[in-house]
Write a structure and sequence with these properties.
By secondary structure, the protein is an alpha+beta fold. Helices cover about 20% and strands about 30% of the residues.
Length: about 200
């Protein structure tokens, strides 16, 4: 059995790097676009940050994420991100791949992913920040969402909208691969400057 390396402790990593660089939560908030309250919750490990939040933090702290695209810094009116340069992550079982499609240099209260699942693929997620919703549109195959003991299956063209501030599971129900667009709508107050 091929066991995967467990994910890094994001909260501990953020706190350690922030303190090493002598940054306050307010300074990191200003750099990353993530509110102080969200940063504090991440460091205390009371929330499971979404991929775009982790991306913003790694970029603002100078932590290599192995997928930087320098064209975002140029004055070119069109940014062309090659598929191989698109940030991605895999589910714990290795059968689900999420490609982050939203701009990585701009913090937005939404993030969207091209999600591809192999047969029997499962993506389990702990609760995200309070007020987070996900919108999953099935493009091919069959995909189910389980949240609060309720499971609903989406066919191609169907969209499922659900609270993501509670544990939830996305599962490929097809006899082959499935594909979906996954939009994560984050609470806007996590991105607003605090006074």
């Amino acid at each position: 059995m091929n066991r995967k390396t467990p994910p890094p402790n994001i909260g501990r990593m953020v706190r350690s790097v922030r303190k090493t660089r002598n940054l306050t939560l307010a300074q990191l908030s200003e750099r990353s676009g993530v509110s102080r309250s969200m940063l504090s919750a991440i460091e205390r490990e009371t929330v499971n940050p979404t991929f775009s939040v982790v991306w913003a933090l790694t970029q603002s702290l100078g932590i290599d994420f192995n997928a930087l695209n320098e064209s975002a810094l140029s004055d070119d009116p069109v940014e062309h991100v090659k598929r191989y340069s698109t940030p991605m992550r895999h589910s714990e079982d290795g059968k689900c791949t999420l490609h982050m499609l939203n701009p990585k240099r701009n913090m937005l209260p939404v993030e969207w992913h091209d999600m591809q699942m192999e047969q029997d693929g499962v993506l389990e997620s702990a609760a995200h920040a309070p007020g987070t919703f996900e919108h999953l549109t099935c493009l091919a195959g069959r995909i189910s969402i389980t949240s609060a003991s309720r499971t609903i299956v989406a066919e191609p063209g169907d969209t499922l909208r659900y609270r993501a501030d509670r544990p939830h599971v996305i599962r490929n129900e097809a006899d082959g691969p499935s594909r979906a667009l996954l939009l994560v709508a984050l609470p806007a107050h996590y991105f607003a400057p605090e006074t």
